[in-house]
Amino acid sequence: MLFADHHHAHAASAFYPSPFEQAVVLTVDGVGEWATTTVSLGSSAQLTLKKEINFPNSIGLLYSAFTYYLGFKVNSDEYKVMGLASYGTTVYKQLIYDHLIDIKADGSFLLNMDYFDYCTGLKMTSKKFDKLFGHPPRAKGEALLTFHKDIASSIQKVTEEIMIKLTQSLYREFAIDNLCIAGGVALNCIVNSAIRKHSGFKQVWVQPAAGDAGGAIGAAYSVYYTHLSGVRNVDPQADGMKQSLLGPSYTLNEVIKALSAYGLNYEKVEHELYYRKIAGYLAEGKVIAYFRGRTEFGPRALGCRSILADPRNSEMKAILNAKIKLRESFRPFAPAILDEFADLYFGEGSKNRYMLFTENYSDNSNGHQASHAVLIPGAVHVDGTARVQIVNQVHHPDFHQVITAFYNLTGCPAVINTSLNVMNEPIASSPEDAICCFLNTEIDILAIEGLLIDKKRLGFNELSNTWLLLIAMLKLRKHRKLKYENRLA
Fold it and tell me: Above pLDDT 70, what percent of the chain?
């Protein structure tokens, strides 16, 4: 039996699928065995640990402490803090520096454990932490005050500044132009953008499944290159993660069988017309569950298990949050945009196919964007940024056709793309998962492997819809139980 250390697995997941022959590899998370931050050097098939920071000193746990303090779930809802941060100001930034963390010249750090309780207690923060900020932890469901927004903004800015200082130091020390990043903190796309802009590294590559799930890929890579002496052939033009489409796929017969089990009628549409009809539904303001090919690996839906909507509608964010995703109103949505139009909307420079960086959106009002570009307010956050996914024909041909059809109809080369699930549920993988999400929300259309199901044409009344939802949920529960039992077997 072979084992990979937690942070080595993170580092391997970042370096080996990257387009770099040589790179500095930075991993940052809550904690592995003991390490919380590591620096390695990757060269060809070799990955060598250079230094590390150990528990309890952790950027990830610092951020998680504030996640807990703001009333969100630790190791799950940190992205909510990131989204909330844009609504506040950095009022408490200096207080954090003065009392909670000591940053060294090279970007290494020490936490003042008097303010934290995760070493010896059952909570993330201590009473001294509460006293410092003048409020008790926010209870779940409690109203979000200006205070909470300012707290989120402050810890977000501190995290950005620590990571900038750390990566600037690494660039000076190793004088290598390429940086790979993994670990849960690498899912903070605002931090990633700050690193790309200020660190000095010419190219930054982030593992799309940067959290602990990505450790599975890293462990496999580690065995292949270390134990089996695999040969690494680097192609800078290739996508080492294959658009992160590494999960299961389903045949048309399997999809039809699932639809029939739920009593759903479907329309089978020829290839080109299929995309045109989807574009037409989007242009009408309908919300579409889109299911095609392999399931995405990682926390982002990238056009195979997605909910799609029209980004031209400034009200779409509120509609999706309230009626579809069933989540907090402050949460933003991301645009998936055709690669050839990305510079027009978000300026020249690096974009990302994995939604791992934020870009500044330029609209007609400031004169930076061509006058003929269609505005996409529904996919832009309150701070004027967007977590952009570029979609090109080579790496993601099917999703490229969806957006191209929408562009041909409307002149808009982008769609809102969010994951096919509701809050606190995993992204849909199987047809049964997708059907349950479709029936249990106000999604209008299910587009699944070339088939279209229009909820309005199903002719539900309130009573029949309730019974169908109950049956669907019971069937989904049975389906998941069988999958679990099969894994145990």
Answer: 92
**Angle, CA of 361, 354 and 374, to the nearest 5°:** 30
Residue among 355, 362, 345 at smallest CA distance from 390: 355
pTM over 0.85: yes
Burial classification of residue 192, based on how many CB atoms lie within 10 Å of its CB (0-12 exposed, 13-18 middle, 19 or more buried): buried
> DSSP E strands: which ranges in 87-142?
101-103, 109-111
**pLDDT score at 421:** 94
From residue 45, alpha-carbon distances to 17, 179, 228 in Å are 11, 16, 11
For residue 295, give the nearest of 172, 432, 190 by alpha carbon: 432
Q: How far apart are the first and last CA of the chain?
A: 20
DSSP secondary structure letters along 443-464: --EEEETTEEEEGGGG---HHH
Residue corresponding to tokens 């779940």: 140
pLDDT (tens digit, 9 = 90+) per residue, 98-136?
999 999 999 999 999 999 999 988 899 999 999 999 999
How far apart are alpha carbons 387 and 268 in whole angstroms? 33
**346, 360 contact by CB (below 8 A):** yes
Residue 200: how many CA atoms within 13 Å on its side-chain side?
15
Residue-wise pLDDT for 342-370, tens only, equals 999 998 877 899 999 999 997 644 444 44
Confidence of residue 459 (pLDDT cuts 50, 70, 90): low
- Amino acid making up residue 355: M
Rounded Cα–Cα distance for residues 194 and 187 (Å): 13
